[in-house]
Amino acid sequence: MRELVGWTEHERAVDRLRASYRAIPPGTPVRLRKRTSNLFRPRAATHAPGLDVGGLAGVIAVDAQARTADVQGMCTYEDLVDATLPHGLIPLVVPQLRTITLGGAVTGLGIESTSFRNGLPHESVLEMDVFTGAGEVVTATATNEHAELFRTFPNSYGSLGYATRLRIELEPVHPFVHLRHLRFHDLDALVDTMGAVVITREHDGEPVDFIDGVVFSEHEAYLVLGSWEDNAPFTSDYTGQDIYYRSLQRKREDHLTVRDYLWRWDTDWFWCSRAFGVQNPRIRQFVPRRYLRSDVYSSLIRFENKHGWYARWAGLRGELPQERVVQDVEIPVERTADYLRWFLQEVPIEPIWLCPLRLRDTETSAAGWPLYPLEPHRTYVNVGFWSTAPVEPGREDGDVNRMIERKVGELGGHKGLYSDAYYDEDEFWRLYGGEDYAHAKKVYDPQGRLPTLYDKAVKRR
Fold first, then answer.
1. Are 156 and 437 within 8 A, CB to CB?
2. How far is residue 325's CA from residue 403's CA, in Å, rounded to a whole number?
3. What is the pLDDT of residues 353-375, one digit of tens each?
4. Which domains does the chain have, with CATH numbers?
5. What gap in Å lies between CA 241 and CA 425, rounded to an integer?
6. pLDDT, mean of residues 259-272
7. Which residue among 54, 260, 305, 394 sits deepest, i.e. has the most Cβ atoms within 10 Å of its Cβ?
8. Mean pLDDT, residues 300-328 taken together
């Protein structure tokens, strides 16, 4: 069992955070002092002092009886799961990559295969302590005097403040997950089946506790239906030589331990590890398992973004420059097949990840989350695609992403803000809760010490 931080050590870490804020000269922009990020937006290099969050990366306490955990904002889901699994519990939504932090998933959104029944990570937060742009720590809940901050914090990306502690709900687990891989040759049939499973939570008489999918082409796509089970006839291992997403094409069913299921996508960063050659069996056999992780790949990407060695080499070989197309969008389920057909025709990227979601049926969710306004009682499908597209002659870097933004808007969808965005400012605030955000910003960051959401999501620095 992972060692807990405890309340005393947590308060000391918060005191260090306050002290680091006071050490930043008045009027100077405030940022976190951290070396890594799961964001894919360009970040300007800076040598300015930052907030000390080094002691805010653990689990404070787990209450197995109440099924809750108090967690520091910089705690990774890998460490969080290690602390809760010995109690037979996990968070209601565990994003796919080990090093995503709880605070990051709440302020920046997150999703996984339980989101059709458990919504998004911020919906299972009971209360949170937020270090605001004004240098104060406030406790926000859905009903107290800081309810406005509680509702506007999701999708604010640290522009209102940073979560130092979050109390979240947990749910019980079983030892194994049984997977069924349903192949579809028609996208309409796939989406119709997905929509029905979301509502009924079963398929062919078997309950469904998890659902996601992969589209390889218009005529080859899969839904993966997962069910808890107490005993498994066998278990597969996708942390070494075998590659998880390829198993969907080879097997009709599978069994994984709960831990391996939670991190099934991390070993190969979904399928993005192929860019580093490690899906080649002749190379993979020499790569230690400890390096088959999303954080290793992302560190390589950050190195390339900083130095551009591969881009220069590709240019010398006469290859076209590449536009980064790394996005997750939410499309209403009834328009998802249309979007997929358009995408497969217009954007040269495959595979594509699918994950359905619905807001939880709670009073807070019914009131809405203004910075990412999904409709209650409506099914959306998260469509994830993470690669590059060639910048064709006569086009500019960013054109493909702009085209995607327009199409998502036409279909009544929403786009996450963890990567590149190109909206003009008026459209951006119309889509992302401008009035609600402006009021919360005035209350919790009155001096503008933190960048605005538009500054962080769209402007290049």
1. yes
2. 11
3. 999 999 998 777 667 899 999 99
4. 7-173+448-457 (3.30.465.10)
5. 47
6. 96
7. 260
8. 81
